[in-house]
Amino acid sequence: MNAPANAPRVLLIDSNIYFTKRLGDALKQEGFDVVPSTQGTYALTMLEWNAPAAILCATNLREMGALEMAPILRADPKTAGIPLIALGGGDDQALLEAFRAGCDDYVDRRRPAADIAAHVRSFLVSRQDGFQPTQMLSSSQTDLSGSLSLLDLPGVIQMLAQAHQSGGLHINAGDTDGIIFFEGGQIFHAECGALFGDEAVTQIVKACHGVANGVYKFVYGAAAAQRTVLRSTTDLLLDAMREFDEHARDQEEQADEQTQEQPEEQPSEKEAS
User: How many CB atoms lie within 10 A of CB 121?
Assistant: First the structure.
């Protein structure tokens, strides 16, 4: 299938030619014009004369992968706005590393090529229009989920904010059940029990930070009916972590006071004699 003349161009960088062929065909089915490359360094020279709508780059390339390419793109005003989507192994730690490096999104390359292509299209629509067309995708293609013991909640929130995602983040850890809605990477609304807005975000982060058992699930495209959060994501996380630290410090001080107040055991009469 040949892409239309005005189709958005995607630069696909991967050393596996069989994977590139499968994913390239799937991307063309989604309406993209695909430019394949096996080397990241060579691909960067192509950006000077023909900037793509997005770059898909593997994380395991020998010379320059997505993690090394991200800071180079962000440092140049001419390429800083090009979305970079990393293709990797799929575990939570690799996903977090990609976002910390400056990638805009992360996709598990083990997923079917058609799923990856649909995700790329959905991501670009969300980045441009501020929403995800979830009615076009199955839940298996749209849901992001994981364990809070592997990737802490502040890391998940920062990841979604940096990727400018829109949707609902469901969190469950112990007695805490909450949801945080994002619009273009900004926290839009939050609920936790009877709490709403900023207080709900703070409570969710405090209660779930560092938990051994807890799960999260992000549903692309889920929207809130009203906005209750007006502060920035960074400010909310800083406040939540400060309150978490203060609470932990207060508990330690109370434990020390109780230990000091406990009377020493008096020896029995037999021991005294």
Answer: 21
Whether residue 267 is contained in a domain is answered as no
CB 76 within 8 A of CB 45: no
Q: Around Cβ 166, how many Cβ atoms within 10 Å?
A: 24
Residue 220 lies in a domain: yes
Number of helical H runs and strand E runs in the chain: 10, 11
* pLDDT tens-digit series, residues 206-263: 888 777 677 888 887 788 888 899 888 888 888 888 887 887 787 777 776 777 666 6
- Asked which of 69, 95, 129 is the last residue of a domain, the reply is 129
Residue finishing a domain among 103, 129, 155:
129
Question: Under a CB-based contact definition with an 8 Å cutoff, are residues 156 and 187 in contact?
Answer: no
Look at residue 93 and tell me if it is in a domain: yes
Q: Which two tokens stand for residue 142?
A: 């749209």
Q: Which two tokens stand for residue 245?
A: 């630290």
Q: Which tens digits make up the pLDDT trace of 63-95?
A: 899 999 999 998 888 888 888 999 988 666 777
Whether residue 25 has pLDDT greater than 50: yes
Same-domain check for residues 226 and 196 = yes
Same domain? For 200 and 120 the reply is no
| pTM confidence score | 0.54
Residue 179 CB neighbours (<10 A): 19
Note down the domain range covering 223: 144-258
| pLDDT, the chain, mean | 80
Name the residue among 233, 217, 135, 136 with its Cα closest to residue 177: 217
Domain count, the chain: 2
DSSP string, 240-254: HHHHHHHHHHHHHHH
Q: Are 197 and 229 in contact (CB under 8 A)?
A: yes
